[in-house]
């Protein structure tokens, strides 16, 4: 049965603390403490080395095997990298080491075979996304250029599915750094669409520490604000305020809201913000018409 780092540290405490009570005389206490500490240290070193030196091969159950001429690319990583990066995979490894549910543990996220086989079976993931994720997790320098518009959506999903804080922060950085490239005129299914990017932030990146919200949120608030002037504006100035704003963004926002993919792609919170903006615009229009009569 394997022993995780947390259990090992708890075991060290259990060995060291009683030593002070069993050997109250300072000369004996020091000798015994040294013996016990050395014994515990050897155990920690042995188990830690075993943990770190197990290489795990990622196996993708949803990817059909390629022909003999084109063997499927193998992704192999030190188990310690995944153990520290993902809280979800950490639980899978610990369950496997403890022998729960037999020698193989399966879950909605995947399963890990026994340490001898060291194969991690993943369901619903793409090898190309995990290849980028592993490079990001093992990088010692700046490799954020690996994140692109083509893979940021899938990387956000991996970060959320396996609870990987590092990957979540990297995706947030990418969206914030490229906020100037977000547009309402991109297809709704593209992460370069402002509504899509804001939805990624809501669905997958909400656990990032406060103060690190993506710029897409403020950009979206500005677009929604263009739907209608401030409710506090006097009636006679409302029409002038409308003319001073960008009508094209408001019309494009309403056009996107009528797309077939809107309900599936756009996160509920983003939809609620847009709906509130539309209702404010309707209220302003009614106020103008009422005042004109």
From TrEMBL:
InterPro entries: SKP1/BTB/POZ_sf (IPR011333). It comes from the Eukaryota. This is BTB domain-containing protein. It comes from Chlamydomonas schloesseri.
């Amino acid at each position: 049965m394997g022993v995780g780092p947390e259990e090992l540290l708890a075991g060290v405490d259990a060995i060291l603390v009683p030593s002070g009570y069993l050997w109250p005389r300072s000369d004996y206490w020091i000798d015994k403490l040294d013996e016990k500490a050395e014994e515990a240290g050897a155990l920690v070193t042995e188990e830690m080395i075993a943990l770190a030196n197990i290489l795990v091969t990622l196996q993708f159950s949803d990817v059909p095997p390629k022909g003999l001429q084109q063997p499927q690319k193998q992704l192999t990583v030190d188990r310690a990298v995944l153990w520290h990066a993902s809280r979800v995979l950490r639980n899978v490894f610990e369950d496997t080491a403890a022998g729960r549910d037999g020698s193989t543990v399966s879950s909605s996220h995947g399963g890990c075979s026994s340490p001898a086989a060291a194969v991690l079976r993943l369901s619903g993931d793409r090898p190309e996304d995990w290849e980028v994720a592993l490079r990001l997790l093992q990088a010692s320098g700046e490799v954020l250029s690996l994140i692109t518009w083509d893979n940021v959506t899938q990387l956000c999903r991996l970060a959320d599915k396996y609870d990987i804080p590092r990957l979540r922060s990297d995706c947030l950085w990418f969206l914030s750094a490229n906020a100037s490239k977000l547009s309402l005129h991109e297809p709704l299914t593209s992460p370069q669409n402002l509504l899509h990017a804001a939805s990624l932030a809501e669905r997958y990146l909400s656990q990032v520490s406060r103060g690190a919200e993506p710029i897409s949120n403020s950009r979206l608030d500005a677009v929604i604000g263009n739907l209608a002037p401030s409710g506090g504006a006097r009636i006679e100035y409302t029409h002038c305020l409308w003319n001073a704003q960008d009508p094209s963004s408001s019309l494009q926002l309403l056009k996107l809201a009528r797309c077939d993919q809107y309900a599936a792609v756009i996160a509920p919170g983003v939809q609620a913000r847009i709906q509130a903006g539309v209702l404010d615009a309707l209220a302003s229009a009614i106020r103008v018409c009422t005042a004109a009569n």
